[in-house]
């Protein structure tokens, strides 16, 4: 896969539709190798390092059942690990998954309306 890093902050649904409009989808990290590859790119870039990033992870349909949107796969925390104490569904309103810099670039659940950067994924055919 290839990735596009969008530093413009948007809510999760806007990030998702922006990816779709380009024929892409929000990033789904189905393997630990893919997760580590993306995290390395984030950590190695001064422009990316301190941002939070929307991924396709969400539990919008069923609380605590995490899936990757659009690729329609269950999210595996052994592939994309949660930060410690996450997901906490704080205030019963955290249903979208982001990579959080201050949590050591691991996964967190956040309110979908929060404004974060986002990563689109696409395949070269
Ligand atoms: Ca939730
Ligand atoms: Ca959280």
Automatic annotation (TrEMBL):
Pfam families: Lectin_C. Residues 1-121 form the C-type lectin domain. PROSITE patterns: C_TYPE_LECTIN_2. It comes from the Eukaryota. CDD domains: CLECT. This is C-type lectin domain-containing protein. It comes from Capitella teleta (Polychaete worm).
